[in-house]
Request: fold
Amino acid sequence: MAQVECGEVPRPSSTQHGLVYVALQELATRVSHHNTGKMLADPAGREVMKRVASDENRHYLFYRGLADAAFEIDPSGMMLAVEHEVRTFEMPGTGIIDFSQHAKAIARAGIYDFNIHYEQILMPVVLRHWNIEARTGLTPEAELARDSVIERMERIATAGRRMAARREAVKVPA
Reply:
């Protein structure tokens, strides 16, 4: 509710940036809602989260399709947008008071963290679906952006594995 009341929304600098952001954000939201639902003991709550996650998946597929079409029209512009959005990506909620604390709790619970972001968002969309490594006809600037995305994703993967290992190390045996 705090996010809705604040009305904070991303302000992409171009259509390409907006398409990349919403494609990644909708999938990330689907994953986090799905993971939240799996943790609920209440069957009705699980069903609500399952339905919300399903709606988010439809949004994701729609925006991903628009991004696919944009890649066909302007591959260099889209590559620059991918680099920017991967580098600056934030989940909705940044306008919520103490959001960073909420984000840490969400990560500790295993709902959404760097490892999930890498494995369930970036890898399937950026590397496999958009297949940025195989894109051709890019400007020199877009080629550099692609290299930067791949390098950044490797760093995100490394950070995600470290954070997951730390979380596992501090778990108290049941």
